[in-house]
Design brief:
- This protein is α+β, with helices and mostly antiparallel strands.
- It has 15 helices and 22 strands.
- Strand 20 (about 425-430) and strand 21 (about 440-450) form a beta hairpin.
- It is globular.
Length: about 500
């Protein structure tokens, strides 16, 4: 969901860069040592809470607002001296993550981000977290002796388990879902930023690791790199990771169709069909081929247009259905807009599609996913397996909840990164006036028309499958293999 599209859509997938979405341009002069007096910090903290309380539609979805307020108050009581922007930001991160909403993001000012990203404090490795262990999966350092698959045991003398335990509470995710937080931490820049903020700036790191596929633990010291080098080196050394994959594609494994959707949006390649056309062509083809089984791979799909996600489900659903139960917002006008880039016109536009409800809030009307939805033709009556992981979030989580509730698919992989009952959207970004720290606030609460599942979980797969580091190094995909085997045996 974004503030530009009034159809309540998620404009881009939720990637694992949660401090900023991209590397900013060089800022004006920024002094990382500049401190702010206690009065200014407390004023920003109070404003942060006031804006969240006023605008955040899902503020108490997972945590009672009075509990959240106590955490904010305790942080305020702990502000006894001046802090830099980095120091203050580090104290705010767990407060925002405690809301347990994947779309609620706290961001440093653009100048502070640029300053941090220009420091050689980032680990020259890509990491994978598997079953409470961490592995070096991409080597971006100059030490060729560190092979992919090595188990990371400690960073600068701190056991990796303690490092991860310290960083996870700083990461926003729906319902606090652990798989979602871990997938976001796997991004080298995201991990490096939080490591520096939590453990301090270091231009080299002592890494203790166990070589792959086994052997005695070793320790090496490696120089840090700057944030942009994580992307450059990844593309240079692992070209396949920089290759632009289609947003959606269909293939076959024998007689089983495999539909891969990486984002619910139109492919930027103008030579490829738009999503609606692609989906219709896909299901026409499945019908003509009398395809018995379908695998839908939604791993790493951080969302997109929620109307497109519903459309996928509508091609599988065989009867009219409800998708959203409610879409509602607290108010029709917001004081917090004063601290955003929203114009008076856009604020008025936001108020137009709203209608006062009996609960004291406002219903968002006119959204295409509201009300009774019709199945799409051609449909698919065969068996469906869906692959999910902690990166399956936002609009993807909405669709998988519908598939799960109506029992239209069997799930493989790891816990979905999105809360079962929906998300919050229509995002606005406000700036705290003293420190320049920014907060992204979702103004609309989306509640799926589903029931009977734990409130604070994502979908737990029917068949949990976690790849091993041996699988990843060898390029095997045990999640896909398990789904294909299941469908084959069921014929």
């Amino acid at each position: 969901m974004n503030r530009v599209n009034r159809k309540m859509t998620i404009a881009a997938p939720l990637l694992a860069v949660f401090i900023v979405a991209a590397f900013p341009q060089a800022p004006n002069a920024f002094d990382p040592e500049k401190t702010y007096p206690v009065e200014a910090l407390k004023a920003d903290l109070k404003l942060l809470w006031d804006m969240l309380e006023e605008g955040h539609a899902g503020l108490d979805r997972y945590m009672p607002s009075d509990v959240l307020k106590k955490s904010f108050d305790a942080t305020g009581d702990g502000l006894t001296g001046p802090l830099t922007e980095f120091g203050f930001y580090s104290r705010l991160l767990p407060l925002v993550a405690g809301i347990k909403d994947g779309h609620t993001r706290l961001m440093l000012s653009p100048a502070a981000v640029a300053d941090l990203d220009a420091q050689r404090v980032f680990l020259p490795f890509g990491l994978r977290f598997l079953k409470d262990k961490a592995y070096i999966f991409r080597n971006l350092s100059s030490d060729a002796s560190i092979k992919e698959g090595a188990e990371l045991l400690a960073i600068d003398g701190t056991p990796i388990k303690d490092v991860v335990s310290a960083l996870l509470p700083l990461v926003s995710s729906d319902a606090g879902i652990r798989t979602s937080r871990l997938r976001r931490l796997e991004d080298p820049t995201a991990f490096g930023r939080l490591l520096a903020l939590r453990f301090g700036w270091r231009e080299s790191h002592r890494m203790r690791f166990r070589p792959f596929p086994g052997g005695e633990a070793k320790e090496v010291s490696v120089p840090g790199i700057i944030a942009s080098d994580t992307i450059r080196l990844l593309a240079e050394r692992y070209p396949a990771t920089a290759e632009r994959l289609p947003c959606y594609e269909m293939s076959f494994k024998g007689t089983t169709a495999v539909l891969t959707i990486r984002v619910f949006g139109d492919d930027p390649d103008k030579a490829r069909p738009r999503f609606r056309e692609f989906l219709k062509e896909t299901f026409v083809s499945l019908e003509e081929k009398r395809t018995p089984d379908l695998v839908i791979d939604l791993r790493g799909n951080g969302g997109g247009l929620d109307e497109y996600a519903k459309l996928l489900f509508a091609h599988i659903m065989d009867r009219p259905f409800l998708y959203y139960w409610t879409l509602e917002t607290k108010k029709d006008h917001y004081d917090l807009f004063r601290f955003t880039d929203e114009t008076a016109e856009s604020a008025e536009e936001f108020a137009r599609p709203l209608r006062k409800n009996a609960r004291g809030g406002f219903d968002v009307i006119g959204h295409p996913n509201r009300g009774l939805q019709m199945p799409q033709k051609p449909g698919f009556a065969g068996r469906v397996a869906i692959l999910i992981d902690g990166g399956s979030a936002s609009a993807t989580g909405e669709a998988t909840s519908a598939f799960h509730y109506y029992k239209k698919a069997v799930f493989f992989g790891e816990e979905c990164g999105s809360g079962y009952y929906g998300m919050s959207g229509f995002l606005v970004t406000a700036t705290l006036p003293n420190t320049g720290i920014q907060i992204r606030i979702p103004l609309v609460l989306c509640t799926m028309a589903v029931d009977g599942y734990p409130k604070d979980r994502g979908i737990i797969p029917d068949f949990p499958v976690t790849p091993t580091i041996d699988d990843l190094v060898a390029g095997r995909d045990p999640v896909m293999e398990r789904a294909l085997l299941f469908l084959k045996k069921g014929r």
